Amino acid sequence: MAKKAKKQQQAGGTPATVALTAAGVTYTVHSYEHDPSHPSYGEEAAEAMGVSPERVFKTLVADVDGALTVAVVPVAGQLDLKALASAVGGKRATMADPALAERTTGYVRGGISPLGQRKKLPTVLDASASAHPTICVSAGRRGLELELSPDDLAKLTDAVVAPVGRA
């Protein structure tokens, strides 16, 4: 790990913020006090930041034909598993085991970021992200969000952009 990245992580950064900084991407970090009793991590983030739930995206890990795949969809909706499978050329998708998702990404549930994952997984960004100049995604821990352009997110994750979310 480069010295600069190490310093950023030690100063409270996450692998996601280190990846963005290393790529030279413009982003904003938003932090808030996480309430463990809140029923939805994503809705909690939207409320705490005062941002529309359509602009706050959750990172979900699914199993598509035996391969883990990341879906980034608005917290205001749900993941369409059939659409996700189709977007990556698969036939069937199910939600991944949460423990496997945590081990593979290196993040805890409710704090999984699409960036800086331990193992780079195929990623699909919901097409609705393109309607916003910036979106928010987890920065790698509960109570920490990143705001960045959807184009930068798609580029850094090599994401397929497709309609995989539903209201």
The proportion of residues in beta strands is 25-35%
Could you list the spans in which at least 5 consecutive residues all have pLDDT below 50?
A: 1-11
**Considering DSSP H and I runs of 4 or more, what fraction of the residues is helical?**
25-40%
**Helix/strand/pairing category:** alpha+beta
Features:
167 residues; alpha+beta; three-stranded antiparallel beta sheet; 6 helices; 10 strands; globular
Describe the structure.
By secondary structure, the chain is of the alpha+beta class. Helices cover 29% and strands 28% of the residues. It contains 6 helices and 10 strands; from the N terminus they run H-H-E-H-E-E-E-H-E-H-E-E-E-H-E-E. It has helices spanning 3-10, 15-23, 41-49, 81-87, 98-105, 150-157, and strands spanning 28-31, 57-64, 67-74, 78-79, 93-95, 123-126, 135-141, 144-148, 160-162, 165-166. The strands form 3 sheets. A 5-stranded mixed beta sheet has the order 5-2-3-6-9. Strands 1-8-7 form a 3-stranded antiparallel beta sheet. A hairpin with a 2-residue loop joins strand 2 (57-64) and strand 3 (67-74). Helix 1 packs across helix 2 (15-23). It starts with a helix and ends with a strand. Mean pLDDT is 91; it is low at 1-11.
